[in-house]
């Protein structure tokens, strides 16, 4: 009865927040198929349960529903009118996490070579016996007097890597002359009189070098992280500078375009006024000519009548007056100029266009050379010494389009510095 009470006192109810405790043998009750998410086909991570009772990884189910217009169970296709609120199944998560840990540990466990039935986990590996031993067989091994001097190490899978293939003895020494691990018999044959030290001593020295190398690597990482920050900062500055320069260029070109449009409007207005003046002049001359034609027609009629008259005295008296042309206007030198200075305007505009093109080309060339120079400086800063000759060509087409292209690039030679080696490159850019 007392024992029963003692056992009862030892029992207690597990609280909701307390993790489940699994025994070593409880894994036999777990089935991997029961712990697999049907979406990712892997053991559950943060499992959630749908209203229809199926389990999935929270991230898998969330992504599945985010990509779909309707909330369906991926397993039974049951449709949910309202998207369910997903809560992690803590019990199932603990079971899945335990299964993962056991699965991962089983992958790296070294099993006992002496066990005849179910092989247990090995505690040590004996280099002299060439076997890995569990706790029970290790005690039996150590109790044998002839095994007292055997070399034991932490359990390893490939024991043959620790055994000399020539003498079948444990590799206990390191030959510094040949930079290889050797056994005791090797020092009496192939490695006789060589500089050999215990592998533990060589390992300690190598670890010291590894620490120094690791420190150097960490410093290199920090240097490169710092360089990344510098490059990002430079890129941001370059972006801001480019945006400002673009805005300034757009403002200048907009003002230039407006000035050209204004000049064009003024020129067209002058040409229209000149055309109207020419039309007014033409209308006045035509009116004057029409008036003279009317006078001349009347005179022609009078001359026709006079040529048939029989009054000789009257003909002689008015002959001089009728035949006189002094009161008529000479129209030979009078004309309307049909050319409204078109050639002059075209010549002036062509010269203006040529001058503008030259100025724009020079500005673009200077800007491109400045850009190339900046890029070369950056290349030289990060990649060593590089010389490149770039020939740029820019022009403005008759349609007013700006055309820029790299006409040719000279030979590219450079020396890029890398750890423990030098890379030299030659090439041509197109």
Give structural notes.
- With 430 residues, this protein is α+β, with helices and mostly antiparallel strands.
- Among the domains are: 19-107, Herpes Virus-1, CATH 3.30.40.10; 364-430.
- It has 7 helices and 15 strands.
- The chain has helices at 2-10, 58-66, 90-108, 135-142, 199-306, 312-323, 342-383, and strands spanning 47-49, 55-57, 71-72, 79-80, 124-126, 131-133, 152-153, 173-175, 180-182, 196-198, 385-387, 390-396, 402-409, 412-418, 421-427.
- A 3-stranded antiparallel beta sheet has the order 6-5-7. It has a 3-stranded antiparallel beta sheet with strand order 9-8-10. Strands 11-14-15 form a 3-stranded antiparallel beta sheet, covered by helices on one side.
- Residues 1-28 and 382-430 have low confidence and may be disordered.
Task: Explain briefly what this protein structure is.
The chain is of the alpha+beta class.
Secondary-structure topology with pairs:
Blueprint lengths: L1 H9 L36 E3 L5 E3 H9 L4 E2 L6 E2 L9 H19 L15 E3 L4 E3 L1 H8 L9 E2 L19 E3 L4 E3 L13 E3 H108 L5 H12 L18 H42 L1 E3 L2 E7 L5 E8 L2 E7 L2 E7 L3
Keywords: Coiled coil, Metal-binding, Zinc, Zinc-finger
GO molecular function: ubiquitin-protein transferase activity; zinc ion binding
Organism: Tachysurus vachellii
